[in-house]
Each structure stands twice: as structure tokens, then as C-alpha cells.
Specification:
Blueprint: H1 9-12, H2 15-26, H3 33-40, H4 42-54, E1 64-68, E2 74-78, H5 81-99, H6 116-134, E3 138-143, H7 147-150, H8 153-161, H9 167-177, H10 190-210, E4 215-219, E5 222-227, H11 230-246, E6 257-260, E7 265-267, E8 270-272, E9 277-279, H12 281-300, H13 305-319, H14 325-334
Antiparallel strand pairs: 1-2, 3-5, 3-6, 4-5, 7-8, 8-9
Helix pairs in contact: 2-4, 2-5, 5-10, 8-9, 8-10
């Protein structure tokens, strides 16, 4: 572990950095009432925010809690706008600057110049290399059971202490992490996706440096290992299961398994093969249901054309990264109306 970072907290805590954080937090949200209210007396509000942190009087606001149901049911917690500014400032000033650069190359979630499509392409590239090197191979596909809800805050804090020894920074970090006594971190906080990535960065380095896996990819808590044979796949599965439990206080999802590589990899919304990439069955099922609903509303004269267009174009954007030309043409013909 390199030298710990010290004496950086107050260097980064200034009006300019907090103003830049405000700009990022308000981007695309300037019409929201809480953003408008903060922006009316912007300079004063930013100075007050900086002062409250400097004088150790800053505390997180009250969460607004709601539930989403797509792609699956999740409880979302949202903080007031001023706290979202602070999260932006903290992530950019400390996490992006000092920790994210130490990530392995093949982690793809919530990072600049990464994302699902690059993860999918890299996965296919690795599958082709495995085919070339070994002929046949195994896939070990894992994810974490109820990941965000299961993160141990004390372990998370201890991981971050490996990078920082700045006492003021660590004291402030406690405010962000230990916002309640419950286990887990809130889905909805800007910091949460970074904390989650940092948490599993421990697993990344274990797999790459201890297990010596050459072809490994992670997208948040969904990760893939490509392994030469069944015996090694079984060995890695058991080692990872123990590491996740004993070191990170997590549990692998029961769907985690290893299997022959020719069966393909279900990853980041696609079914990946060495020769081609397909859409998941669930993606095709959802768009068919939407098309049916749109057609019904069109016949009744109640269709919101603009909303349907945005939704269908979003699906097209997803579909174009797969070998889906004929599928897209088929679904376009199912529409009873023109989306222009």
C-alpha cells in the first residue's frame, strides 16, 4: 500500500471547489424547486456550506424515501440538494483524485470512459482470447446478494483508512458513512456508487493478484472470470466465496455458478458469445409489452407520442450494441403508428 494521504481536507475545502460541485449537482436539474431555492442566493449558500464543514457543524439532511420497480424493486433514498453538492465535492476532491486511479483496468461501473457497452465488448474480446489460447474454457459468473443493503460500514471505513490518514477528512467521512445504525449504504446517494466500487476493489485485487486470474471483468457487483478448466473454476469459486464472506462480510448470490464457455455470458444486459452478441430475453419481452400497450393507446387516441418515442429510441440505443438488425426491423413493423 502506497503512502497514505494527509493534510488534504482543508486544501480542497474552498468556495471554488464547492461551486464546481454545485454546477455538477445542478446539471439538468435547474428546474427543480430545491435547486431553484438554493440558487437564488447562491454565493451565500455556498459560503455557508463551506463554513459549516470547516466549523464541524455540518450534518446530513433528512432522506426522502421512495421505491422504484424497474429493473427490479429497490428502495431509493434521496438527500436534500445541499447534501448532494457536498457529495459531489467529496467524490471529486478525494475519491476520484486519490482512490479511483488505483482501480484495476477492468472494472466498468460508474467510471469515466467506462460503462456497460465497453464491459460487454471487453468480455467478448476475452472470450475470443480464451478460445484461441485454450480451445475450451469455463466461465465463473458471480454477483453479490443484496449488495448495497449488505455493505458493512465499519469495513468500508477501514478500507478508506488504508488510503487516508488525514484526521479531519476521516472525521468528515464518518458523517457520510455512518448516517444511521443500519447495515448497508443508500441507493440514491452519489457517494454510494463510489463507496460500493471501492468496497469491491478489494475483491478485484484479490482475484487479480492472489488468484492470478488474467481475464476478469466487474460491473458493480456483477463479475466474470474466464478460466481454463473446471477444476480451477471450482477452486476460484470456493476461494472467492470465502473472501467475500470472511473479508467483506458479504454473500454470493445463489445464482453464482461456473459453466462451459460455449454457453455464452449473460452480462450487462446482453448475452455474449465469441462470435456475436444478443439481447437478453427479458429485454425483448419488455419492449414487446410496451409496443402492445402503445398500440392499444394509439387505437384509443390516448398515446403520448413523445414519451413513446423516447422510450423506443432508448431501447434502440441499447439494441444497436447487439447483433439485432432483423430483430429491430421486426419490432418496428409491430408498431401501429410511426415514431418520428
Amino acid at each position: 500500500m502506497p503512502k497514505k494521504i494527509n493534510h488534504v481536507f482543508y486544501e480542497q475545502l474552498n468556495f471554488i471547489n464547492m461551486y464546481k460541485a454545485y454546477e455538477r449537482a445542478s446539471k439538468g436539474k435547474s428546474f427543480r424547486p430545491d435547486v431553484i431555492k438554493f440558487s437564488i442566493d447562491l454565493e451565500t449558500n455556498i459560503m455557508n456550506l463551506v463554513h459549516s464543514i470547516k466549523t464541524k457543524k455540518y450534518q446530513l439532511g433528512t432522506y426522502q424515501i421512495f421505491t422504484i420497480y424497474e429493473p427490479k424493486e429497490r428502495i431509493i433514498k434521496s438527500l436534500p440538494f445541499k447534501d448532494r453538492i457536498v457529495h459531489q465535492w467529496f467524490v471529486e476532491s478525494f475519491l476520484n483524485t486519490y482512490i479511483i486511479p488505483k482501480f484495476i483496468n477492468d472494472t466498468y461501473a460508474c467510471l469515466k470512459n467506462k460503462g456497460t457497452h465497453k464491459a460487454v465488448r471487453k468480455c467478448q474480446k476475452y472470450m475470443r482470447l480464451m478460445k484461441k489460447e485454450y480451445g475450451s474454457y469455463y466461465v465463473l459468473k458471480c454477483d453479490i446478494k443484496k449488495f448495497f443493503y449488505s455493505i458493512n460500514k465499519t469495513i468500508l471505513f477501514d478500507i478508506l483508512k488504508k488510503y487516508f490518514k488525514d484526521k479531519d477528512l476521516l472525521e468528515f467521512l464518518k458523517i457520510l458513512i455512518f448516517d444511521n445504525e443500519e447495515k448497508g449504504i443508500p441507493i440514491g446517494n452519489y457517494t454510494s456508487q463510489y463507496f460500493a466500487n471501492i468496497y469491491l476493489n478489494e475483491l478485484d485485487h484479490y482475484i487479480k493478484e492472489e488468484l492470478r486470474i488474467k481475464y476478469y471483468i466487474r460491473y458493480m457487483d456483477d463479475f466474470i472470470l474466464l478460466i481454463p478448466n473446471k477444476e480451477m473454476a471450482k477452486f476460484c469459486f470456493e476461494k472467492i466465496e470465502h473472501f467475500v464472506k470472511d473479508v467483506l462480510d458479504l454473500e454470493l448470490n445463489q445464482k453464482s455458478k461456473y459453466y462451459k464457455g460455449h454457453l455464452g455470458v449473460d452480462f450487462c444486459g446482453y448475452k455474449i458469445y465469441e462470435s456475436h452478441i444478443l439481447l437478453r430475453k427479458s429485454s425483448k419481452k419488455k419492449i414487446r409489452k410496451k409496443i402492445k400497450k402503445w398500440n392499444e393507446r394509439y387505437q384509443l387516441g390516448t398515446l403520448n407520442d413523445q414519451k413513446a418515442l423516447l422510450s423506443f429510441n432508448s431501447w434502440l440505443g441499447h439494441a444497436k450494441h447487439a447483433n439485432s438488425y432483423h430483430l429491430v426491423s421486426k419490432y418496428q413493423k409491430l408498431l401501429d403508428f410511426n415514431l418520428k
